[in-house]
Amino acid sequence: MKRRVGWLALLLSVVLLVSACGQGGGQPSTGAGEGEGGGGDGETVELTVLGPWSGPEAEQFMPVLEAAEKELGIRVNYQTQRAEDLQTVLPAQFEAQQAPGDVIFMWDWWVKENAQHAVDLKDIWEPEAQAFRMPASEADGKIVAVPYALTVKPGFWYRKSFFEKHGLQPPSNWDEFMALLEKISKIEGIKAPIASGDGVGWPLSDVTEHFLIAFGGPQLQRDLIEGKVSWTDPQVRSIFEERLVPALKYFGDPVEWTQAVDLWWNGEYALYFMGNWITGMVDDPSDLGVFALPGTKGVVASTDYAFVPQYSQHVDEAKKLLAFLISQKGMELRAQQGGKLANRTDVAPDAHPDVDQQVAELMVDAELLPDLDDSIGGDWQRTFWDQLKLLWVQPDAVGDVLQTLQDERK
Asked: How is 64-102 classified by DSSP, letter by letter?
């Protein structure tokens, strides 16, 4: 009976994997490695890389894989696979001691929980570790996954042409920020100075975290995540009451967040707090500018983690590919494509396209921080999102909002 269940589980995993490939869209082998190493006679090793990127993001990744093919004499087949799908597929595959990919991008916590199936990457990580902004994933005494490029939530985005047209400048202190919002509010055709993303909870939580980091410092973000500081703490209350709430009168009513991008781009709003992925959502990224709240010393960042499953038929080649991806050369090449930021301190901001360079410059002296509500998660995260929606329409409810957040956190 156990054998039958095992075979059924394997069959289900294969069906799910094929289905996910069909929906997510596999990328064909780049072909750059053909004829390299194996002389084009069928001896060239072909690796499969599973990653979350599709569309423009996948296109930005392909030149990096092409360069790896030429340097390592291999072929690489990239397939789009979301982590949500992989968490269903991989357990049954691993139980059968099989792997759908040789290098797999996956949640780091998931790889830690399944560390027995991951190859130890200590030998490729340790020579590069000091240059990285974010740590590798460790479990069972092994380095089970390594970080790749960065996504960050740097600040308020604006159109340079809009600022030039109306004589606006990014602020250098809080008073200038509030004065900027007041000036924007008087421009004809503006619904509100700042767009408020909705539809999902995170756009409002992202900007709220930015206020907490700007006026409470990076340590406050960590302490709130760890539960060392309460939501009714005087410091937290003062940030909400003296900074966020006064600014809320300049925020527009919550709008579905992708629709808000279009409305902001078309001039109905002047500012929009969003992650750096917004650069791929507009017609002319060169017209983008961004600024953080003055004095901000931390920025929320995330990265994609990659591991090599023990059941790969080409473990050595997979490790060499991963070593190339996280090397200075590989990371600089990824930065040059845009859309992601280098995770290494030895890749200069000017290695990025102009719009990403602005973000990279903001990060030079900033601490990289985990996302607050993602880190806490669970029911509290949903409560956080709901309470912020309430705060946006009823700013005078700030005391009740903070008390509810603390009650839910206990």
From this structure: HHHHHHHHHT-EEEEEE--HHHHHHHHHHHHHTT--S-S
